[in-house]
Amino acid sequence: MPTTSSSAASSSSSSSSSSSGNRQADVFSRLASSDPEVKLKALREVKNQIIGNRTKKLSFLKLGAIPAIASALSDADDSDKCNNILVQSAAALGSFACGFEAGVQAVLDAGVFPHLLRLLTNPDEKVVDAGARSLRMIFQSNQAPNYDFLQEKNMEFLFSLLNSNNENVSGLGASIIAHACGTSIEQQVLLEAGVLEKLVILLDGSLSQREACLESLATVLKNNPVAVSDFVGFESGRYFDSVTELTKDRYPRTRLLSCLFLVVIYNTSPSYFLNMGTKLRLIKTLLELLNDPGQSGDDAALVFSCLIADKEDLQKLAYEANAIKNIVDILKTGSELQPKRLQGLFLSLAELCSKLEDCRCSFLSLEVLDLMIDALRHKSADVRTAACICFRNAARSVKNLSAGRFTSDRIMLPLVQLLHDPSSSVQVAVIGALSNIVLDFSSPKSRFIEYGGLKQLIELSKSMDPNTRCSALRALRNLMFLADNKRKELFYSDIKAQGFASLISDPEPPVQEQALALLRNLVDGCISSIEFVFDGDGLILDAIGRQLRKDPQAQMAIQGMYVLTNVASGTELHKEVVMQQLFPQEKPGSENFVLKFLQSDESQLRSATVWTIINLTSPSSIGAFDRHVKLRNAGIIPQLKNMVNDACLDVKIRIRTVLGQSMSFGEN
Amino acid sequence: MPVRVVESNTPAQVSGTDPGIRSPLQPSSLLGAGQAFSGTQNVSNQQKEEAWRVNVQIQGIDLEHGYLCGTMEALNVPMADTPVITFWEGEIVDGKNYTFYTGKWEATREDDMRHWSKFPSFSPLQGQVESDGGRQLDLNNYPYIFMRWKEQYFVNVGTDCGLTIAGFYYVCFSCSDGSISGFYYDPNSSPFQKLELKTVNEGRSGFSFSSYELQ
Lengths: 668, 215
Known about the structure:
The complex is a heterodimer. Chain A is mainly α. Chain A is built from 40 helices and no strands. Mean pLDDT of chain A is 90; it is low at 1-15. Chain B is mostly beta strands. Chain B has two helices and eight strands, in the order E-E-E-E-H-H-E-E-E-E. Chain B has helices spanning 109-116, 123-132, and strands at 36-42, 51-62, 67-75, 84-92, 144-154, 168-174, 180-185, 193-199. Mean pLDDT of chain B is 87; it is low at 1-11 and 14-19. The chains are: A mainly alpha, B mainly beta. Chains A and B meet through helix 25, helix 27, helix 30, helix 32 and helix 34 of A and strand 2 and strand 3 of B. Chain B: Residues 1-44 are annotated as: Disordered. Chain B: Belongs to the GID4/VID24 family. Chain B: This is Glucose-induced degradation protein 4 homolog. Chain B: It comes from Cardamine amara subsp. amara.
């Protein structure tokens, strides 16, 4: 602990910074003083300086103020004369913990937790208040200690807090629930102990009780439809109506927390929100809260994104309520926004663009690319991730992809660079964005390839993590969609037959599926592209045949059959090679996978299989009749005859094509 | 996954008990992203006969929202030195997202009926469409898909190229062979310019399919 002699803090000091530094250093010695008055004054001084001042909090923290205050707290006994010290030290510690994660960590590291708990049973109400408020600050942070709800004595203690007449104490009880209850088992234990009845009473209490109650109710009801139904049913919906009214409260934090609660209800049991007016009010309240400069505004953005996630009807309502422009205007204000708010705003934009083309076009028309590019370079990984997700969803607009909106250097380069980002969530998100952006439709020249993106994706397709392999292959598949020969050659030269065969035989079916879809695109286009599958002595085709014979998942089989379809649209040689895969010599009599696929429940698989047969028996080719005979003898043509009334129109039409082709060979 | 429905030879009726809940159309293999079509557009007027060669490529299709888009390339256009490429967006008549009535682009209901009735495959549906807009029709099991295509912008030439994209096409797609016919509608252009396209197989002996997956 830094110390200094008292004479150094005299008026002879020359600069204001050195004198404030001296005062700071001096306060430590006074905190350690045995004179309670001196100690008290020092505590008050620290508390008054740090309240609402993050810079001061950091500065005092670095000087070791927290252990010093912790000692003051633990050394004070419970006698009356120490009460002021207890109050001020608790208040100072609470202030350090308020909205300052490093402060919370330091407070917990200093071991004050049991001492603060002790204060809750102090006869002096002011001491109890200070202890409760301080503990509440700790429980509101991400560093909140675990609370074992499954232990009976912990539950008794918790309920004693909830039952207290002291609003800070009951509020603390609610805060503990709000922030420490994490699993559905804990939720259930709390519900069975009757926590709902205790919490709803707090809705009629003071501001701080209401806020604590809203947060804790949201935690306890989340994803629990039975609990939601119980809550809504309480006193014929009175409490539910109260919460809805609180969305119009004059305090922003109350409005935010009531919205958060309603979003939890909506996501758990949407049937309570059939009324369009309620949905719209919720959306508008949250949009308005986005403009709040404080923590409520920071949190509102994330809550809004949770509300509209996966819900097209709400996204439409929000779009019509001008959400996109409102959010973009906030982003464009130029002031430094908190990372949490930025993350929430970009995630909200991402959700708005997720399903509706109008939203995407509207968003992209607002000159937002610079904003998004800046966010890709933000120091917070959460912001970078959110910006990538926003890019990904905006790039679902084929119209804008086709217009080349995303292919400029200033977009492509930072995105490709993020493939090397240290954060795995950023990497995953950027692969998703690039997956869409590489569908550039417009030009054969690709900045993405120039910046090394192709090589990077090929590397990622060999990752230990199957999700990464799958995502990288999906991006490669999209990159090879309608690609010209030059691009295909460039890609193939890096992967080769062995590489492809390995991917097709990957242990994970989704990886196999993407590898086959990629191959399908490779062999589409001009007829010479089919030659790729012949490289390496047919290694690739053999791998496909092997996988198709292994009773594969439908999605993988669909892609495999489309590879065979595409190859079978080539020359006689190509068609014969496909026949060899359908009827391998070394396995006569084994159940033919073509027959199995034709009987699949998955219509797309039936369709893909029929297309292979259409191409094999296309009358314009010389060997068509012989292949037709072989297919007939294998029971495939008869199977198709049984399927003339297939439930799927597309399958039915393709079968009629095959049978029409059969008739041209003189079949009845 | 499509629901198994009972086969019927005539254009089926949707059950009258649930008129409000329509589903999007099922996928049709030849109307998919990456599919290419080639043919002509007849641009004749009273002065002379003329036809442009046209290539169309589908770039995206979203059946859930009845939307598709792609490019159209017109060759041997007299006013242009190069082929003229436009980007278009389409509305699929599925009874859920869009009906046979355009409701915009200066096309009246009479214009709509005049154009749709030029497609032979529309005649079995005509009576129903005239009486209640085709509300009861089960287009999901009909082997033709009706659309409107509207060009949005020129891809490779300026708007001063002397060509117009003010109108739109009434389009009929045949699910069985992928052939497309269409009629261009623009109150300020020659009426009923006919578009006729067939699938393109790039020198292959059969059909080939590519695909992408948006994340």
